[in-house]
């Protein structure tokens, strides 16, 4: 059964009747419900671990020394699980961008440097080619970086080995265009319309959520994300971001 069918069934809907935007909304709603259901037992477990830690004071010193480290590990892992749920929801949800002037060339350079070791391990050349005359863009630097990071990681995974990934940026008609192109196998034409659907992937790596999360973030900035194939081979994902504040929707 397709993942979206499972998600739709969980919420009592027919996946075959859902458009792409409705599928994205479906996943966001299910994540919210899942987070609520997971956090309730996590909170209960956390409280009982704290109670057990208090009960240790009544035990013999030797037994207390043996059990304390184990309870600390459980306590720490419970907090880590809660943090994972919260971070994932923050990435998946479209709302909540904190806007400030952002230098796009700096973000592009940072991302390429961050992923250069991974690319080098695959013998992939990665380069940033931004127009340094680009004006600042009003954006959330953390979330925009995450969106671009997801797109570049997707390109690296598409190439797999021995290839190129290029990240460029330019400005035209009041918009900043950020393009991530590769010389991999490209995207089958019949799958271009589904590339941003949650859990959709043509690769052996990844969860299929990277491009969906990127699209959610870009949409929250009042922009758009589009995918296509290059005439010379490979794929290109283009991010469009508005320059003017009044064009940004949050």
How does this model look, in words?
With 250 residues, this protein is of the alpha+beta class. The strands form 2 sheets. A 5-stranded mixed β-sheet has the order 2-4-5-7-6. A two-stranded antiparallel sheet has the order 1-3. The longest helix is centred in the N-terminal third of the chain and has 36 residues. The C terminus is likely disordered.
Structure characteristics:
250 residues, alpha+beta, two-stranded antiparallel ribbon, 6 helices, 18% strand, disordered C terminus
Characterize this entry briefly.
The protein is of the alpha+beta class and 250 residues long.
Number of strands: 7
Largest sheet: 5 strands, mixed
Instruction: Note the beta-strand portion.
Output: 15-25%
Mean pLDDT: 79
Tell me the span between the first and last alpha carbons. Answer: 35 Å
| Helical amount | 40-55%
SSE topology sketch:
Elements: H1 3-10, H2 20-55, H3 61-92, E1 100-102, H4 104-121, E2 124-130, E3 137-139, H5 141-159, E4 163-172, E5 175-182, H6 210-220, E6 224-229, E7 235-242
Parallel strand pairs: 2-4
Antiparallel strand pairs: 1-3, 4-5, 5-7, 6-7
């Amino acid at each position: 059964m397709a993942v979206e069918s499972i998600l739709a069934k969980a919420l009592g809907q027919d996946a075959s009747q859902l458009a792409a935007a409705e599928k994205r909304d479906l996943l966001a709603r299910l994540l919210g419900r899942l987070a609520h259901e997971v956090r309730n037992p996590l909170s209960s477990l956390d409280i009982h671990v704290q109670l057990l830690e208090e009960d240790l004071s009544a035990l013999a010193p030797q037994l207390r020394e043996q059990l304390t480290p184990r309870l600390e590990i459980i306590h720490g892992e419970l907090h880590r699980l809660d943090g994972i749920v919260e971070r994932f929801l923050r990435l998946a949800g479209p709302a909540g961008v904190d806007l400030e002037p952002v230098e796009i060339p700096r973000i592009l350079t940072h991302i390429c440097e961050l992923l250069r070791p991974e690319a080098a391990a695959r013998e992939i050349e990665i380069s940033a080619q931004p127009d340094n005359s680009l004006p600042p863009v009003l954006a959330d630097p953390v979330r925009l970086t995450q969106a671009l990071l997801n797109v570049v990681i997707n390109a690296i995974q598409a190439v797999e080995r021995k290839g190129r990934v290029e990240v460029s940026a330019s400005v035209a008609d009041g918009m900043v265009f950020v393009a991530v192109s590769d010389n991999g196998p490209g995207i089958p034409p019949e799958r271009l319309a589904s590339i941003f659907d949650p859990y959709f992937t043509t690769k052996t790596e990844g969860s299929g959520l990277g491009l969906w999360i990127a699209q959610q973030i870009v949409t929250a900035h009042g922009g758009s994300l589009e995918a296509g194939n290059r005439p010379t081979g490979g794929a290109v994902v283009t991010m469009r971001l508005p320059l003017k504040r009044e064009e940004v929707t949050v």
